[in-house]
Each structure stands twice: as C-alpha cells, then as structure tokens.
Amino acid sequence: MSIHNAEDSRKVTTHRLYEMKQRGEKISMLTAYDFTMATIVDQAGIDVILVGDSASNVMAGNVTTLPITLDQMIYHGKSVVRGVKRALVVVDMPFGSYQGNSKEALASAIRIMKETHADCIKLEGGAEIIESVQRILCAGIPIMGHLGLMPQSINKYGTYSVRAQDEQEAEKLISDAKILEQAGCFAIVLEKIPAKLAKRIAETLTIPVIGIGAGGSCDGQVLVLHDMMGMTQGFSPRFLRRYADMNAIMNNAVQDYIKDVKSGDFPNESEQY
Ligand code: KIV
Asked: 211-252 pLDDT, tens per residue?
C-alpha cells in the first residue's frame, strides 16, 4: 500500500472513502479556503479537502466560526473547487444556514452544491438536526457529520475543552454517531474527544470516522491547513502537529523584500523591461 496517493489520479468519491476504511487505509484530510492552497494540497495527494467554516477564523480573523455567512462559504467553496482535480471537496454549512428548519437547511445545501460544484457538505450536530440531515440526503446531497467539539455551539459550552469526558455525554455522542450513520451520512468528523471513545465509535460504525484531536484509531485525520503549516500563531492544542514554520519563512521573505526595496537592490537590470 502506498503512503500517499498523489500518483493515483482517480477522483476521490464517498464510495472510495468507504472502501479505504474497509481495507484499513487511513484517510488524509486538510482544510483549504482558496484556489492556490487547494491546488497545492490536491497535487500533494490529499484524499479530502474541507472548505471549513474555520475560514471565519483563519481567513477573516473572527474569534469564532459563527460570523461567516453562506455567501462567504460559497465564495471559498468555488475558489477551492477550481483548484482541485482529485480530492473529494467538502463544504461546511455555516452557522445559521441549517439549524432553523429542514426546508431552510435543504435550500442552503442546494445553494452550496449548485454554486460551488463541491462534492458534498458537512454540518455539526446529531439528533437535534436529524430532520435537516434526512431532507438534505433525500435530495441526493452527501453529508459528512461532525460531533464532539462543535465550534458553532461555543456559546452553549463556553469553552473549547475536550468533550464527552463523562459517561452521559459519551453515550449521547455514540447515539448521535449511530443516528447519523443510519440516516445515511457517508462519514463523520469527531473533534477533540477522548481517544478511547473515538476508537469505540470508529469500530462500531461502518462509515469512515475522521478525527481531529480524537486519537490514532480513527479511520482518518483532519487538521486546519494554516495550523499544520505553522502560519497561525498562539494556537497550540496538544493534537496539533506543525509540519512547517511558514510564519517564520514568510516573515523572513517579507523582511528580505523590504530590505531589497529600501536599498534599491530590487528590481535589478534583469528584473525590468
Ligand atoms: O471548519 C473546520 O476547519 C473544521 C475542522 C476542524 C474539522 O470543521
């Protein structure tokens, strides 16, 4: 089995993710919000690209994911899809676009699919939003669920700490995961929950379980691109592994550019017409 699939140019589908789980091949997933980054991530061979509502934090500088709008998610989704040939593209449904009622949820999901040309959508929640999930699935739109830490509910919990540490919350989470699978979701993201609980859920469900801060027994892993690239600062949860220090690399490049402009070194003879 190859470590990554950059040489396998077939388009990733929800069915292929299911097959990967069945043969024990881990699923790789990262966020992207724009054309250039999406192109890089896709060409590197990632399986799934999530146009996350974390764009609210990473792209727009908001403190939470709540302010980002459906129009803004569609803008990011379109930009990413233009840069992707192989990866499955998932677009997050933003806060307020699906919690009201199932009709509104379907209308929002249809807008995302029609306007971005993405492959599927993701939304946060279990039993509370099951009517919306069913209605969207009935329209033929694949859904990735999201349980555990659900950043759109930050005002309810007041903290981004590890979820489902007590028996009652763990049982609710297991039940929600089963409800989403039974409804027909093709995968579920589990965010920031105990690794033991995530393992139990991944072993119970037949659909892929993608973890972020949920341990190594999940069927795949997702991280926010700007965090794992070391672009963002001041966010260092235990689950975050940084693969580059892009903040320092970019800062140095900008400083070199400033120096060259100020000194008159840039542009030189060969860099002008
Ligand atoms: O919006 C996002 O980036 C996410 C991931 C953290 C899973 O939902």
From this structure: 999 999 999 999 999 999 999 998 999 999 999 999 999 999
Considering the chain, what percentage of its residues have pLDDT values greater than 70? 97
Report field, pTM of the whole predicted structure over 0.85 = yes
Residues facing 123 on adjacent strands:
145
Q: Which domain holds residue 29?
A: 3-242
Tell me whether the omega of the peptide bond preceding residue 267 falls within 30 degrees of 0, making it cis: yes
State which ligand 1 atom lies nearest to the alpha carbon of 124. Answer: 8
Closest by CA position to 177, among listed 154, 204, 195: 204
**Maximum distance among all alpha carbons in the chain?**
70
> Does 205 share its domain with 270?
no
| Helix segments in the chain, DSSP class H | 14-22, 35-43, 55-58, 70-83, 102-116, 130-138, 154-157, 167-183, 195-204, 225-228, 246-263
pLDDT tens column, 2-11: 445 556 789 9
Taking the centre of ligand 1 as the mean of its atom positions, its distance from the CA of residue 224, in whole angstroms, is 7
Written as six digits, the tokens of 45 are: 């061979």
Q: Are residues 34 and 87 in the same domain?
A: yes
- Are 254 and 219 contained in the same domain? no
* Residues catalogued as catalytic: 191
120 and 251 share one domain: no
Q: How far is the CA of 49 from the centre of ligand 1 (A)?
A: 10
